[in-house]
Amino acid sequence: MPLGQFVRWLVDETGVSVIVDAGAEDQEVFAEVRDIPIVELLNAVARRLGLSLREQNGVYIIGQSQPQDRGVLVRRVRRLSAEQLTQALQVFGAESGRSVAFSDGLVVVGDKVEVLAKVASMLDQVEATPVPVWVCELHLVGWSRRAAEDFGFDLTPAADLAFGFAVGSSGFDLDLDLGAALDGILRAASERSDVRVSSAPMFVLVDGATSSVVQGDKVPIPRQVTTDQGTTRTDGYDFIQTGTDVSLTLREVDQRRALLDLEIRMSDVRSYVELAPVTGEETFKTTAAVEAGGVYLLGAIVKDRETGEDSVGWRTNDAFSREVHVVQVWCRVYRIAGGLSQHSIEKDSYDARGLLDELSPTEAGESSEQVRPMSPAGKEGASGSEPLPLFNNTVFRVNFGKDKKP
């Protein structure tokens, strides 16, 4: 049927107010729907005919959208930065609208009303999404050759553990308590001079964030310049960072597991050549899958420069540095915030559902006022703030295009 005839029938059946632009009344439409809100039906019809639907004071208008018909959405989003908000709004890619995001989280969007509704829904979901927070504590433990032998390691401590990991991955049962092993190592580090914890940074990270820490000294390098008289003088200094540089990125896989991207650089000054320091550097980089509450040996760095010079990664003029054999990288991880799955909620020791069962509906927060269903001819659904009526078990047809079905 023509669009004008369809709109007149729709107004008689539901009581909503609809206006159709001139020239659109004769366009043929066809549709068959059941139990659909009025606003979704009008949106589908308008979209199929290449028109737009807008609402003004409870009146729905079907026709070509004009610049003055655009709406404006202004709200503050507390979770995303201005750059992240801009990227999120680009998902819609509307050619007719514009959006601006500010550093304080305020976002202004100007577009069609139906697009603004989708933007508002998207921002609501962004703010409602839980923010997982993890704690990661690293321990960089240095072993001397003598300490490794005293603790019963023929080659290196990591070799025995690597063999144990290989056995466990082959399908055999393996009882390897790394938490107890780390506790024993930390106790040994407090009692022995040849076992040392060189660095123990702790990070509190949100999902997807990167944290870093630099622990060491900046070595000055003088900038020598020659004057017109042929003399040499110092014109400022350049600095080289030495010590331990740790960078950690966490990406949550699910509510119990995460991926850690860890990079550790250890450097120190070994000697000087014409006032320029010669530095040695070792880099450890890995990606590991971890579980909340777990203790992990992420890897080990073997020191092979055991000469009279200062060893890489440790302070200069330290007798212990010249005896370092292995540096182990240990990690503890915990999940302290974020949404929990239904399985995790059921395992919680406190069962809130038992308490809710004892409460009356009013005490449990349930409203005593019931929602009253609306009749198809009700007028309350016509306003923009009220829910629109549904077509209950009603089938109607509107012809999209020139060909009519019998």
TrEMBL record:
<dbReference type="GO" id="GO:0016020">
    <property type="term" value="C:membrane"/>
</dbReference>
<keyword id="KW-0472">Membrane</keyword>
<keyword id="KW-0732">Signal</keyword>
<dbReference type="InterPro" id="IPR050810">
    <property type="entry name" value="Bact_Secretion_Sys_Channel"/>
</dbReference>
<feature type="domain" description="Type II/III secretion system secretin-like">
    <location>
        <begin position="189"/>
        <end position="307"/>
    </location>
</feature>
<protein>
    <submittedName>
        <fullName>Bacterial type II and III secretion system protein</fullName>
    </submittedName>
</protein>
<dbReference type="GO" id="GO:0009306">
    <property type="term" value="P:protein secretion"/>
</dbReference>
<feature type="region of interest" description="Disordered">
    <location>
        <begin position="360"/>
        <end position="390"/>
    </location>
</feature>
<dbReference type="GO" id="GO:0015627">
    <property type="term" value="C:type II protein secretion system complex"/>
</dbReference>
<dbReference type="InterPro" id="IPR004846">
    <property type="entry name" value="T2SS/T3SS_dom"/>
</dbReference>
<comment type="similarity">
    <text>Belongs to the bacterial secretin family.</text>
</comment>
<dbReference type="Pfam" id="PF00263">
    <property type="entry name" value="Secretin"/>
</dbReference>
